[in-house]
Amino acid sequence: MEKYLQELFANQQYDENNFFLIAGPCVVEDEALVMEVADKVSTICRRFGIPYIFKASYRKANRTSAGSFTGIGDEAALQLVKKTGEKFNIPTTSDIHTAQEAAMAAGYVDILQIPAFLCRQTDLLIAAGETGKIVNVKKGQFVNGPSMKFAVEKINNTGNGKVGLIERGNSFGYQDLVVDYRNITWMKQINVPVIMDCTHSLQQPNQSGGVTGGNPELIETIAKAAIATGSDGLFIETHPNPAVAKSDGANMLRLDLLEPLLEKLVRLRAAII
After folding, report:
1. What pLDDT band is residue 211 in, cutting at 50, 70 and 90?
2. Which one of 65, 78, 120, 150 is at 20 to 30 Å from 31 when CA atoms are compared?
3. Under 8 Å CB-to-CB from 84, ≥6 apart: which residues?
4. Rounded to whole angstroms, how far apart are CA atoms 96 and 194?
5. 73: phi > 0 → left, psi -120 to 50 → alpha, else beta; which?
6. Beta carbons of 114 and 135 less than 8 angstroms apart
7. Contact 204, 176 (CB under 8 A)
8. Is the pLDDT of residue 63 over 70?
9. How far apart are CA 230 and CA 71, in angstroms?
10. Which CATH superfamily, name and number, covers 3-272?
11. Nearest in space to 54 (alpha carbons), one of 259, 241, 208, 237
12. What's the mean pLDDT when you consider all of the chain?
């Protein structure tokens, strides 16, 4: 594990041979939700010795419909993310959308996440790198793994070598994504941690109703294959009741299903290392 990740997880007791987990609800809906999810996920991760990063978006800027929920307000949501991290003594992450947001969000979270649609946005990558925070970049649905070296270079050129890449599938027609697991191997050759987004890779975008669909019943399949092909970490959005979630409910994992899934994945990881 990279030194900067060891420092990030210094307050957690974990198995050094395990993958790490980035998990939480898609977006900050209210304090009760983020606290419930962080409490349950951190408890599960301690049991299995999994290093844990709490994730929740403070704002959803790339909704299909103008009527979709985008957030409770940037500062209010970021304060809740920070409060959650402090309460459970865990690192946090959230995605940013413009260069101007980088410094603001860096005051609240440990890791800045770059959305897939913006993975080639030079000013955004540079601004994120200049904060000195860890920067995780989602691979765009329209690019292959090897080309992500250019995103990494842009951040490295700021003097920030703390970069991770997230695989989340490639567009297949108009309403599906397909994961090419060669990308995990290819991106690991860039010498950065590679994370599999097990939930967004199962999205079904561009639905006629204006709300993205998904196939959450395949989350276990995606996660198992990611561990088997060498993913360093997993990204899983989870919610106590995805049916009432205000964003991406169609592809999130129900919170009570997370523990049995992680138990299987820890056993799989132990079998292949």
Report:
1. low
2. 65
3. 34, 35, 38, 54, 56, 90, 92
4. 19
5. left
6. yes
7. yes
8. no
9. 34
10. Aldolase class I (3.20.20.70)
11. 237
12. 94
Side-chain-side CA neighbours of residue 243 (13 Å) = 0
Extract the tokens encoding 126: 């540079």
Type of residue numbered 99: A
Joined together, the tokens standing for residue 245 give 């979630």
Phi, psi of 209 (to 5 degrees): -80, -5
> 210 falls in which pLDDT band (50, 70, 90)?
low
* Top-confidence residue, 204 or 265: 265
Task: Using alpha carbons, list the distances in angstroms from residue 266 to 50, 87, 215, 227.
Answer: 8, 26, 23, 9
User: What does the domain layout of the chain look like in residue ranges?
Assistant: 3-272
Residue 138's φ and ψ, nearest 5 degrees, are: -80, 135
